Amino acid sequence: MKAATALLLAACLTTNVNAATVVSVGDGDTIRVSEGNKKITVRLACIDAPERSQQPWGARSTELLKQLTPIGSQVTLRVQTTDRHGRVVAELINYQGNVNKLMVGAGQAFAYRKYLRKCDAQKYLGIEDEAKRRGIGIWSVGRSGITRPWDYRKGGGSSITNSSSSRKYRCKDIGSWSRAQQLLTKGHRYLDGDGDGEACESLR
C-alpha cells in the first residue's frame, strides 16, 4: 500500500510540476519537503554525495545542500521515479538553478553514472570534469577524488567506531528520522541495515 501510494505521488508530481517547501536536509543528496499536507523524502537524482560518515566530505556536502535549499525555501521537483525505499527521485530546481548540478559543480557530489539514463548525462559528466580540473571539494585530494560513495557503501563504510556510549538503539525507540541520521554519523552504522547511507527508513 505504501509503495503504491509513493508511485501514485510520483506520477502526480511528474504530471503537475508543483512547488514544494524544504522541511529538512538529511545529507548531501537527500531532503524532506512538504507539498500541500504531504511530507515527501526526496533523493536527488543523477548524483551521489559522500556518505555522512565519510568525513569531512559528508559534512561538507550536507552543509552545501543546506545552503542551497534552506528550510522553508521553495523548490520545484522534476521527478524521475520512486526508489525501492519509497523516496521520490528528482532534480531540484530553485531560483539558483538546478541544485543537483550545482552540487556536482561545487565538488560536493559525483555524477551517479549508474543512474544517468534519465538525466542529461553529458552535462553532468562535463560539470564533474570541470570540478575535477579545478581540484575542488571531493577532487581536492587529487584527480582520482575520494572513495566513491557507492564503493564506500559496498565496503561497509570506514573504520569509524560507535560513539563513546556502548548503547545500542532500535529504530522504533529513536523517535525521529533526523535523530536516526545523527546517530548514524556518530558511528551507529547498524541502523543502516541495507547500507544505502540512510538510517531507519521506517521513521520517514
TrEMBL record:
<dbReference type="InterPro" id="IPR008613">
    <property type="entry name" value="Excalibur_Ca-bd_domain"/>
</dbReference>
<feature type="signal peptide">
    <location>
        <begin position="1"/>
        <end position="19"/>
    </location>
</feature>
<dbReference type="GO" id="GO:0004519">
    <property type="term" value="F:endonuclease activity"/>
</dbReference>
<protein>
    <submittedName>
        <fullName>Staphylococcal nuclease homologue</fullName>
    </submittedName>
</protein>
<keyword id="KW-0378">Hydrolase</keyword>
<dbReference type="InterPro" id="IPR035437">
    <property type="entry name" value="SNase_OB-fold_sf"/>
</dbReference>
<keyword id="KW-0732">Signal</keyword>
<dbReference type="InterPro" id="IPR016071">
    <property type="entry name" value="Staphylococal_nuclease_OB-fold"/>
</dbReference>
<dbReference type="InterPro" id="IPR002071">
    <property type="entry name" value="Thermonucl_AS"/>
</dbReference>
<keyword id="KW-0255">Endonuclease</keyword>
<dbReference type="GO" id="GO:0016787">
    <property type="term" value="F:hydrolase activity"/>
</dbReference>
<keyword id="KW-0540">Nuclease</keyword>
<dbReference type="Pfam" id="PF00565">
    <property type="entry name" value="SNase"/>
</dbReference>
<dbReference type="GO" id="GO:0003676">
    <property type="term" value="F:nucleic acid binding"/>
</dbReference>
<feature type="domain" description="TNase-like">
    <location>
        <begin position="16"/>
        <end position="141"/>
    </location>
</feature>
<dbReference type="Pfam" id="PF05901">
    <property type="entry name" value="Excalibur"/>
</dbReference>
